[in-house]
Amino acid sequence: MNEPIAAKVTEVKPTHNRQQLLKNLESSRLARETSRFKNYVAREKLVGLKTAIARKVKGFNPEVASTKQKGNFGEIMADANLSKPIQGDRVTYNLRRVGRDVPRSLDTKLEKGIDGIYINEADGPSVVINEAKYGSSTLNPKTSDGKQMNRDWIENRIIETNFENLEDYLKVRNAMRQGDYDSVLSKVDAKGNVHHYRLDEEANIIGDWP
Length: 210
Prior knowledge:
This is Cytosolic protein. By secondary structure, the protein is α+β, with helices and mostly antiparallel strands. Helices cover about 40% and strands about 20% of the residues. The chain has one domain (about 55-210). It has helices at about 5-10, 20-55, 65-80, 150-160, 165-180, and strands at about 85, 90-95, 95-100, 115-120, 125-135, 180-190, 195-200, 205-210. A six-stranded mixed sheet has the order 3-4-5-6-7-8. A two-stranded antiparallel ribbon has the order 1-2. Helix 2 (about 20-55) packs antiparallel against helix 3 (about 65-80) and helix 4 (about 150-160) runs antiparallel to helix 5. It is globular and about 75 Å long.
C-alpha cells in the first residue's frame, strides 16, 4: 500500500530560529537607538558651541570695537565655523583644533602666529591652516618670511607653536612636508558671517574653500 502523500513531504525548517530572530530584532533596535543618540549628541554639541560663542562675543559693537576686539571676533567666529563638520565637493572635514586656544573673549590679548591649526579626522587633507581676517583686513604682505600665510611663513610659525603633545606636532609637521594640507583665509563680517578662501603656497587666493 502506498504511503500517504503527506508522509512524504519533508518538513521545512525555518531559516532562523526564534532565538536568532529575537537577537536580530534587538540588534536592529540598538542600532536605531545608537543612531538617535549620536544625533542627539551632535545637536547638544552644536547648542553648546552656539552658547559658548554667544558668551565670548557678547557685547560686540563693530561701530566702537577696538582693533583687538575686531581681531578676536573674527578669530572666534572663524573657529566656530570650522568646528562643525564640513562637506566639500569630494572630501569631508571633521576638524580638531590643536596648538593655541581660541580667544576666550573679545578682550583677550592678541597673539602672534597662526590663528588656527586643525587636524582633519575625516577623509580630506590631513591638516588645515587658517588665518581669520575681520572686515577689510588683509594678509600682511611684508613679514620676515614674506607674505603672511605663504608656505615658509606657516612652517616657521608651526615650529614656534606650543602643541599639547608631540603626536599632534608631528602630524602637522609631516602633513606640511608632504603638501597634505589646506591653507585657508577666513573673512568675517560685522554680523559674524564667514567666507572661506583657499590659498596657494604663495598665499594668493585661488578660489573658495572647501
